[in-house]
Amino acid sequence: MEAEQIQEEIDFKAKVEREKKAEQERIAEEERLKKEEQERKEEHARQAKEAEWRRREVNSSDKIPLCEREKWPVLEILERSDEENEQPPIICSVRGHPTKFGLDLVKCEIIERTEANVTFNDHEELVSEVLEIKSVHNETEFQDPVFIGIPHFQTRAAANYREVIVKTDVGGAWVDLPTKEVSFDNRKDMKFAQAEVKHPGILVVMSRFKQDYVTLTRKASKITSSFDQRITFSFPKDTVQERQNLLLQVQYVDSGSIQDYRARDPAAKGLLTSSHIVHMDWDSRDILNPVTVTLPCPPNPAKAKKLAQIRKMKEDKMKHPKNAPKTLAELEKTEARKAKKVAKVQQKQQQGEECENDEEGAVTLKKTQNRWYMGEYASSDDDENDLLHFLVYSNGRWNVEPEVHITATKIDLVTFDLPRTCDRFMVIRTRTNVSEDSVAQIGRGLNGYLDKKFVQVIIRQKNDDPFQATLTVTPAIRLEKTLKHLTEEGYEEAPCPPIQVCVTEGDTIEITFRGNIRDLGDNPKQQMPYNTHVHSQLYFSVSEVDKYLQKNFPMFRGLVQVYRKYKEKKAVVKTIGGRKHDGDVEREPEIKEELLCELLLSIPKYHIEPSSIPVKAPIKIHNTTDPVNEDTMRNLATELGEEWKKVAHCLNVHRVRIQAILRNMNIGERTFDEAKFDMLMTWLKRVPKAANKISILGSALTRSGRSDLAENLRIKEKEYRRHEIQAN
Questions:
Q1: Above 80 in pLDDT, residue 321?
Q2: How many Å apart are CA 248 and CA 225, to the nearest integer?
Q3: Which of 664-671's residues contact partners 24+ apart within 8 Å by CB, and which partners?
Q4: Is 412 exposed, middle or buried, given 0-12, 13-18 or 19+ CB atoms closer than 10 A?
Q5: By the 8 A CB rule, do 169 and 202 touch?
Q6: What pLDDT was estimated at residue 241?
Q7: CATH top-level class for 630-727?
Q8: Who wins on pLDDT, 250 or 156?
Q9: Average pLDDT, stretch 159-180?
Q10: DSSP state at residue 478
């Protein structure tokens, strides 16, 4: 028995060892497969980048040979239109081999953006419809090259700093295709992005900042940006150890964005101007020598304004000279006087004083004073003193690099030495009283502001059918145009004004309902993607949740909640050399949801039967011996005008009763005289029998400005008493 137990223990340990070894082999195999997949993706990205580099190098050459494919005929695929008189819009243009290709071989149609699941990289924008290319014979690959031209919506202003690129979906990943902008004689008002397509699939046109693909060697070189010729990079000899590629991209920053950012963020009060943001993608993170960078940075607004005034004064003086030409001796004396004042200026400038030119061109001194504000000296808007700061983006945040020395070569041009590689950098100009910590905060805020899209959320109801509503998300600069378009569609009823919110390109806009309003559609949460250049609008039908709620309101009310769903990318911390560890695995971006705003929506109670007209109880006066009878009240109601409410106040008729009389008059078909008669009869029913009704009513009429009617009542009372005496 002991031998059997020992054998069982040995077998159990062997089994555990085998299972442990098998588990280790499985884990190792999974890690190997993950590593191979990661290497495959990196190799695919490297090959795509090299292909793009070669394409850029070929396109940048001065003499490009004319390809035979450029002479192939262009065929157009049009949308189906129900109207016979109008020309149907074009979907895309197709170009193939004249003898082997025809429109009977491919099909192209526009699909919804939600079906394509388009993903966006940083600073990319969708500028076309989403197209799906299909093969009629269900082929997985076209036998001959096919060139697809897709019309896009990029504006002329954006074309100065942005370029278009055609993308296609390959196994869930969106891959860039070599793209060329073309135009056709019969479609001069449209712009096309043309790319060679080898496989059927989904195509879109994206807009991104212009990119420069450069190959670096050990030789000295100078790189000039295609966006702005003033942006240059001077690489000394032996800056890199081996041949490598550099991707350069410039993010456009305009003065309007700077002013808007300063108005929105109180922390950016000290910001004056900013350069463009330069993005760089290096194959290797090591450089041996500093790189000299020349970058345009707008000047101080006060200094630029002053120079413009001086230039204008010189031009006016040249156009309208006041004095005759001076002699040589006078000119020499003037130059000596100017030189002496310039020497004084140079001494005073070191003490924080500024100079200005007088009408004769002479230089005078003017001391600048700082204003005391909130415990510190704050420079005025006319202060020409400023500081330049170099900001670099590393490890997911912006930091100030104080060791980088910036030299202003011109009024709007700066030069500095870049000691090491970085992902992106910029130069900002601030006031002299801004601290270093505030500078980093300003850089982070400016970068975040440029990534945002300020849009207006508009909700409208149809004029002839308030149960039909629409929600539109449009850029703030196109608000007036969008409102005009909604009015033309018949959506003019506005329960609440537009609300401005911040979104990013490619966010999913989702709406839900709260309160006594619900959607009649099958989907409780309607969604749509937001794109700046593509119309983003939702149509829906609404009704009440419970018709017995909100009885005190003339209509049913509820709120439309607007959310945005976005993907939060995880910051990737690159190691030295730009390589990742073997165990590093890219995490999927997290999907988050944020409430943007709530919009009021109300619908009328059309389906509820209105309240019946109240039936007035008949009033009979049993005391016929009094001169104040029904005929007297009707005569008074006919004679009274707008002062009848004042008479009611003098007769102590309650205000609630007056409102009830007016409401009954609005609901039913009662006249204005009947309303005044009801008021007088209300008083008559409440007055005591022993009271002198003629005296009370006459006093109320006199106080209301109708003494004539009071006198008529007294005359009628006297006649009544005389007839009564004669009868007795």
A1: no
A2: 8
A3: 664/613, 664/614, 664/616, 667/610, 667/611, 667/613, 667/614, 668/613, 668/614
A4: middle
A5: yes
A6: 84
A7: mainly alpha
A8: 250
A9: 87
A10: G
